[in-house]
Amino acid sequence: MDNRFNFHSRVEFNILRKTEKAILIEIEEIGSDSIIDLLNNYGSDVMEPLQIWIPKSWVRFDYNKRPWVWTEGLMKNLKKLAEKRLANHEKIKSRATKIKIDVDATIPEGVTIH
User: Fold this and answer.
1) Alpha carbons 11 and 68: distance in angstroms, whole number
2) Which of 6, 28, 72, 93 is deepest in the core (most CB within 10 A)?
3) Which of 55, 50, 60, 53 shows the shortest CA–CA distance to 27?
4) Which residues pair with 15 in a beta bridge?
């Protein structure tokens, strides 16, 4: 998918929820190398599910009345989402490591608990 005009690629999605000014979308089809690269850089454990809030003013409709948005604005929001999820993912990993260390210190190795 070699598109030098990535910011003009369409991203199709399903609408999950609506508010007065924004909608929660789940990305269905990606037509942009830049979004695919972003997903590959952060990995599926950080990026899935691929759901994000966007302003209603960004939404366009094709002749079949299917919603879509341009890639340019969506990329900025996806980068912010990826950074936020990565920070949360690392916090969870560090908490799990701390819990494991505390459990190991409390229960000596080789001792069975009944």
Assistant:
1) 5
2) 6
3) 50
4) 25
